[in-house]
Amino acid sequence: MAVHPIDYRYGSEEMRRIWDEENKLQKLLDVEAALARAHAKLGNIPEESARVISERANTKWVKLERVKEIEAEIQHDIMAVVKALSEVCGEHGKYVHIGATSNDIIDTANALLIKESLGLIEGYLKELRNVLMGLAEEHKYTVCIGRTHGQHAVPTTYGMKFALWLDEVQRHLERLEEIKKRVLIGKMRGAVGTAASFGERALELERLVMEDLGLKPALITNQLVSRDLYAELVTFLALVASTLDKIGLEIRNLQRTEILEVSEPFGEKQVGSSTMPHKRNPVRTEKVCGLARVIYSNVVPALLNNPLWHERDLTNSSVERVILPESFVLLDEMFRVTIEVLKGLEFFPENIKRNLYLTRNLIMAEPLMLKLAEKGMGRQEAHELVRQLAMKAFREGRDFLEVVRESKEVRRYLSEKDLASLKPEDYIGVAPEIVDNVLRYVRECSL
Q: Which residues are catalytic?
């Protein structure tokens, strides 16, 4: 019976498969097999034994049910795997797990799981990057109102919004490459990290195991690979989640009834409310924002897992069983939903223009102030004059430029032609050039 929603509601089948019990068991068996092969290469065990162990170190031979049965009896998960593998290897089973401690197997298997998961995350980041590149290019000149403090500020473009998110996504891809260098490591160092149990050629054996598995050996460990690395990993996942949260939050706000500049896609038969048939709720982006909170919350336990008693204790183990699969599966869900929303994003150009002029040109206060300063009025004096005119227009509910035209102080500096040039669509600075710069950089990075 499924309990946690990641078992049945969230995440792709591919990501859930990586973290399911069968695949986790297989990764543990993969490490045991690689260890046996390395021992055989160094002449520590017969080659025939390594061959048999390798052939049978899979879930066709080692059944999950049998491992659980043994664990229920002996109360040790890795020793249960060792015993179950030894059973199916017959006389060769005596060579399973030689010299290893539990976390040699666990931490190396975790690296394999993380490697698979990061492969999916990288694919999602690249797909999201491509979607945002298309939107930034398409809407480079789509002028809209910019908002600060939830209030209308000055014009910007939708191209700027998408390019800003695109820039973040590109940074995440760069961070990912750095994290892979540090996190995709394994260990064969024994009980407290000295590798005494592996003998004089311990580091050579470890190198052989890691080469076999496509990982790097850790430089130094105690009984664990240092958990600052897992903390960095979970923090990275939370950073990525924060970008998806940021995208979802903006779309939700822009979909508000009184704004409605864009909207997430709404299916032909989709139901918005069980009681209000008219509702078009932004349920997809709300889910994205909600799941981000869970991933954020996993950063703290990941940090707390780094300081442990002496060479190790077990307080990290139960936590990692939860936060690693949960963070990866939930982020997978957030990616799939965000990409779907952006691909089907609906625009309402008439509302974008309506909102641009909603304040009756009050948003032209800044360019008016700058034009006055350009014509010779002191900048601070211009700021105060324009502020007073803006407040007057607001109180009287009149068009700002209409009030400005009545000002003798303004007229001493500006002509009608100057005032006529104050148009929201023309006050976007070098926004298209900025978008082009982002697109150029991202394209270069993606080559």
A: 149, 273
Tell me the Ramachandran region of residue 98: left when phi exceeds 0, alpha when psi lies from -120 to 50, beta otherwise. beta
Any idea what the Cα angle at residue 234 is, between residues 233 and 240, rounded to 5°?
95
Please list the pLDDT of the chain residue by residue as tens digits (447 residues). 788 999 899 999 999 999 999 999 999 999 999 999 999 999 999 999 999 999 999 999 999 999 999 999 999 999 999 999 999 999 999 999 999 999 999 999 999 999 999 999 999 999 999 999 999 999 999 999 999 999 999 999 999 999 999 999 999 999 999 999 999 999 999 999 999 999 999 999 999 999 999 999 999 999 999 999 999 999 999 999 999 999 999 999 999 999 999 999 988 888 888 888 898 999 999 999 999 999 999 999 999 999 999 999 999 999 999 999 999 999 999 999 999 999 999 999 999 999 999 999 999 999 999 999 999 999 999 999 999 999 999 999 999 999 999 999 999 999 999 999 999 999 999 999 999 999 999 999 998
Alpha-carbon span 363 to 223, nearest angstrom: 62
- CA–CA gap between residue 182 and residue 203 (Å, rounded): 19
Residues 264/282, Cβ–Cβ less than 8 Å? yes
Long-range CB contacts for residues 74-80, cutoff 8 Å, separation at least 24: 76/102, 77/102, 78/28, 78/102, 78/105, 78/106
Strands (E) in 247-342, as ranges, are: 262-263
Interstrand relation of 185-186 and 216-217 (parallel, antiparallel or unpaired) = parallel
Nearest to 158 by CA among 168, 169, 149, 147: 147
DSSP 397: T
Write the CA distances from 334 to 285, 331, 337, 338, integer angstroms.
9, 5, 5, 6
The three-class DSSP label of residue 173 is helix
Distance CA 403, CA 400 (A): 5
The alpha-helical segments, DSSP class H, found in 10-157 are: 13-19, 21-41, 47-56, 64-74, 77-88, 102-138
Q: Which residues pair with 185 in a beta bridge?
A: 216
pTM: 0.95
Buried-exposed string 401-421: b where 16+ CB fall within 10 A, e elsewhere: bebbeebebbeebbeeebbee
Any idea which residue has 């979607």 for tokens?
131
